[in-house]
Automatic annotation (TrEMBL):
Key words, A-Z: Cytoplasm, Disulfide bond, Mitochondrion, Nucleus
UniProt-recorded name of the protein: Cytochrome c oxidase subunit 6B-like protein new16
Taxonomic lineage of the native organism: Eukaryota, Fungi, Dikarya, Ascomycota, Pezizomycotina
Organism in which the protein naturally occurs: Neurospora crassa (strain ATCC 24698 / 74-OR23-1A / CBS 708.71 / DSM 1257 / FGSC 987)
Signal peptide (residue range): none
Sequence similarity: Belongs to the cytochrome c oxidase subunit 6B family.
Length: 117
């Protein structure tokens, strides 16, 4: 069947629903999103851009293709969440490095609430 100019394939409709957040992504759709996110973050790293929201113009210029793929393959809310998470994760890692340089000792902490035997 030939699609008309304004008709969308079922896959396109599904992708639009995932981007809009009206349907939950499947496991394979989540994996596709994470791969696109990782590609986008790698591009930001190569271009020394930490905050893609604050440095939106620089990120758009440096990582146009990766950004398009990320936004195409992920729910819009996820895109914003991951961009904010990236900044927080980088700041957390930098702070831990500072603390270790000051002599702090890393501790393994168990946050599991299982009963101890």
């Amino acid at each position: 069947m030939v699609l008309g100019l304004f008709e969308q394939s079922e896959a396109d409709k599904r992708a639009a629903e995932v981007r809009a957040g009206t349907v939950a992504p499947t496991r394979s759709e989540r994996q596709k999103c994470w791969m696109a996110r990782d590609g986008y973050f790698a591009c930001l790293d190569r271009n020394n851009i930490i905050d893609a929201l604050k440095d939106e113009k620089a990120a758009a210029k440096a990582c146009k293709a990766e950004s398009a793929e990320f936004e195409k393959d992920c729910a819009a809310q996820w895109v914003t969440y991951f961009k904010k998470w990236r900044v927080q994760d980088i700041q957390k890692k930098a702070r831990l490095k500072e603390l270790e340089a000051q002599g702090a000792v890393r501790m393994d902490v168990n946050t599991d609430f299982k009963a101890r035997e």
